[in-house]
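Q: How do we represent a protein-ligand complex in a form that can be generated token by token?
A: Start from the inputs.
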Amino acid sequence: MAFRNLPQELIRAKRDGEALLPEAIVELVEGISDGSLSDAQVGALAMAIFLNGMNAGETVALTEAVRDSGEVLAWRDLDLTGPVLDKHSTGGVGDLVSLVLGPWVAACGGFVPMVSGRGLGHTGGTLDKLEAIPGYDIAPSRERFRRLVREAGVAIVGQTAELAPADRRLYAIRDVTATVESLPLIVSSILGKKLACGLDALVMDVKSGSGAFMATLEKSRELAETIAEVASRAGTPTTALLTDMSQPLAPCAGNAVEVREAIALLTCEKTGDKRNGRLLEVTRTLAAELLMAGKLAESRDAALALLNERLASGAAAERFARMVTGLGGPADLLEHHDRYLPQAPVVRPVHAERSGRVTRMDTRAVGLAVVALAGGRRAPNDAIDPAVGLTGIAALGEEVDGERPLAWVHARSEADAERAAAQLKAAIEVNDVGLGDVTLPTLIQDVIRGEVP
Ligand code: URA
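Then emit the structure tokens for the protein with uracil bound:
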């Protein structure tokens, strides 16, 4: 494209700490998408933004420009009977909320076209989990995707090349120019992709604690506040929850093991079981916010009542089954998951060196133990092993001893299991203390509702 403003002059302005006008931001993002900005210029721009930040208006303009850099999904022609809703998380360990929330919200009258990602660093990815299901197609045609959203109310799939292409190039360049950890760049990257899905409302789960993407509670809070404000100003009502990730959210981490956990929760096998309490609580709170934002419930109490009813009746499980079969998975997955989901050949308990209570966890290290088992990727093109992972992970405050292990390791080989056991023991601190001596983190630390202007 022909630049009205020379890109180097815009980069210079940002370098010198000036705020860019929305038109200049649109031009720069177009230049990123169509290749008329060189890699060097994109890298320099990213570094100027990293060092000098952006004000809220600039971040909104950047988010809108990234959103509009490719296809923006539209749903109106399908005459859906309810709102188009979605959830996104900054990523965690044992965080299988999406697998449960999508079908659950669909069972309550929402329509959830969820475009998800793969594992990143120590965190698991929804697409990797779904690919543990034989036959599940994460890249259906656009027609099949739209049909499934209309008929099942939910489809969880991967990103297409047409969705927010500016982000793909910008993210790849940020990755190699030490410019990932920039608030406006993170916010516009996450929201640019999500808002391109044509949503009526969005809920964001921003994690804090030792397994979170942001290093401190203050930074996580700032991210949550900025996301709620920017998305809402860009026209999509958004609520951000600040939730705890100082221990895995579910008692398991891995791909097939997390799908099993999702099925257990959806089919109520374990509802009321306290091991599932945190996962259920976060999922239900996020879903309730969506139902209220989508006007499917008038109050939090009404939203919770509807959600409870649709889980207990099996309606949420039924939506999950429809999504799986609609995307090529087995029709009887819920009834016979052990027939379909892969199991690791080596499964063994890992006991702590001493009896006591779990007092602290390095959740990031727990996630990295799963990656080392080949449950995640070390390099972008690595194949992952869907069968491996951890189950029965002890919670903060729980007693462990010769009977109750820290967790069970599911590994491809004895050597892999051995290494994961050592990593787990190093990641989980056990001390001989009473329950009152353990600081149990608040699970849902804040709910931040963005104001649509
Ligand atoms: N996830 C994204 O999609 N983008 C970021 O910049 C960070 C996390």
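The two ends are 33 Å apart (CA to CA). The chain has 17 helices and 13 strands.
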